[in-house]
Amino acid sequence: MFTKILIANRGEIACRIIVTAKKMGIKTVAVFSDADKDARHVELADEAVNIGPAPSRDSYLRAEKIIAACKQTGAQAVHPGYGFLSENAGFAKLVEEEGIIFIGPKHYSIAAMGDKIESKKLAGKAGVNCIPGVNDAIETAEKAVEIARGVGYPVMIKASAGGGGKGLRVAFNDKEAFEGFTSCRNEARNSFGDDRVFIEKFVEEPRHIEIQLIGDSQGNVIYLNERECSIQRRHQKVIEEAPSPFISDATRKAMGEQAVQLAKAVKY
Questions:
Q1: Residues 62-71: pLDDT tens digits?
Q2: For range 135-158, the mean pLDDT
Q3: pTM for this structure?
Q4: Which domains does the chain have, with CATH numbers?
Q5: What is the DSSP letter of 82?
Q6: CA torsion 227→232→236→238, rounded to 10°?
């Protein structure tokens, strides 16, 4: 077990990690931007390192500054919290290469699940139920219309690298599929630097249920509570509730077991 960790995050996320680490007898290092020098997480940690100006792109999103802070303080591991660099496969790989432990999935697991096209292919191979669609990058608007007809309207046009409500278009007819493909691809290129898009069936009035997992380096994976995330605005979650009040124990068990299958398939 390591004796000192650096938390590459701020605010309540960092505070909770610090409190838990203290209970475990682990020393903590906080990082902060100029704007957060008086923040609570800075006061709670055993040590704190300034990593740059207020904009996140100049501080919390700078992998080299996080790694330098680890070396400066002798932190043996990095806890990324969520958001910021937590789902950045490149950051996880850099941390690992520096001999620092990344408290989270290995970089290859993050990369596999961060790419929607590849993750759907992996899910299919792992025997996990997926929404019907075509899990390959679509090259032209004409091809998008052809695929949309085959899948059956309404369809969702999605960016493979999408997230945060960006890179999504719903189409109910050929015209919307044609125009949606072009605008979705442009948005994906501008937001993520990756313009690959694919098409899947649009599920009307769905419930968005997320399964929480925990896995270790020995290949053990279990599922915990699910989160009910159906209340959304512009495809972004507004409220999350755990457990979901809408699903049965049988559905909960089936979804949990499939989530574990997929996590094991990507060595999560």
A1: 999 999 999 9
A2: 95
A3: 0.80
A4: 4-104 (3.40.50.20), 132-201 (3.30.1490.20), 209-265 (no CATH)
A5: S
A6: -70
